[in-house]
Inverse folding.
């Protein structure tokens, strides 16, 4: 078939669709209602089915969003904690802790567990401070 | 001081040219029974195109609208927008199964105007053409020998304008309007009774 024939057939279908769409969506509510009554359409049933489809669609979209959030949380949990340059960061951390002795006592795992040494938990506290932005990420060591 | 018009323009700039998914959700939640009937009829008409159930096509259009993949311009009625999303989804397949793609002109128009961008061209134009011809022939057969309706339909799909077509058919304005409406309803009715292309 020639290119003209292909083009013509496609254009005819597009015009048919334009015609149907124009009729469906530009008719006034009164005219459309009259047609529906003439056709014996159960309007209430159509409306109910539409609203149920809408509820289902909302549920699907909600589930998709939840799955995305879960996926992001999993990815975040798998991300290795930043490792700052030990000497600079250690000094930054001690400076922060020395200014906040009370907070320091609450922060350490040793305090939470009532045992252990603060030195044991310093890696975790460092990572938390970097995460919070209290200690710069600049100069992070490669993991 | 800003005029009312410029205030309106400022406001529309702030809120954007398209509805947010939440605004769209709120608008669809307000649909009346008649709005759902319009959307259903569009889904029935286009379900032939993608060989799927009209309800699946309608559902897919709702999901894509609510999750933000399809964006509704503020100057378009939400029912019309959903009809366009349905039309667009029905035209998405790659053509190897014989779907009809929208014209390049309509693709460009939808790409720019309403964000309906997932349209693809058929990979086998000949197969699509066969389907296009079959669909037009099928539609003409729906008029059951009503020559005037069939000619009016053929005139419409050949791009004849209203006045030219009316004079060609020697119909009064009233009879012409009535016949146009009959043709459109017959097409809707035929699609409803014959959901799939053979």
């Amino acid at each position: 078939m020639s290119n003209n024939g292909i083009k013509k057939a496609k254009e005819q279908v597009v015009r048919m669709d334009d015609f149907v769409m124009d009729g469906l969506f530009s008719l006034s509510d009164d005219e459309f209602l009259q047609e529906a009554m003439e056709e014996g359409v159960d309007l209430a049933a159509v409306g109910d089915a539409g609203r149920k489809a809408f509820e289902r669609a909302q549920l699907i979209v909600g589930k998709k969003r939840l799955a995305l959030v879960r996926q992001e949380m999993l990815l975040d949990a798998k991300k290795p904690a930043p490792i700052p340059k030990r000497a600079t960061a250690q000094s930054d951390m001690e400076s922060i802790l020395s200014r906040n002795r009370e907070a320091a006592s609450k922060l350490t795992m040793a305090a939470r567990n009532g045992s252990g040494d603060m030195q044991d938990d310093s890696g975790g506290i460092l990572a938390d401070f970097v995460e919070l932005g209290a200690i710069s990420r600049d100069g992070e060591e490669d993991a | 001081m800003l005029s009312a018009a410029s205030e309106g323009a400022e406001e529309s700039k702030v809120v954007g040219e398209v509805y947010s998914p939440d605004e769209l959700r709120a608008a669809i939640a307000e649909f009346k029974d008649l709005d759902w009937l319009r959307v259903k009829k569009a889904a029935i008409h286009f379900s032939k195109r993608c060989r799927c159930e009209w309800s699946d096509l309608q559902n897919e259009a709702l999901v894509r609208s609510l999750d933000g993949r399809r964006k509704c311009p503020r100057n378009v009625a939400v029912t019309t927008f959903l009809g366009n999303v349905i039309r667009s989804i029905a035209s998405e397949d790659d053509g190897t199964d014989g779907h009809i793609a929208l014209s390049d002109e309509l693709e460009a128009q939808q790409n720019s105007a309403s964000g309906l961008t997932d349209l693809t061209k058929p990979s086998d134009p000949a197969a699509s053409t066969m389907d296009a011809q079959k669909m037009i022939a099928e539609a003409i057969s729906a008029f059951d020998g009503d020559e005037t309706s069939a000619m009016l339909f053929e005139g419409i799909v050949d791009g004849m304008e209203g006045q030219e077509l009316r004079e060609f058919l020697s119909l009064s304005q009233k009879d012409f309007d009535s016949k146009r409406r009959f043709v459109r309803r017959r097409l809707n009715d035929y699609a409803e009774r014959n959901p799939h292309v053979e």
Summary: The two ends of chain B are 64 Å apart (CA to CA). The mean pLDDT of chain B is 78.
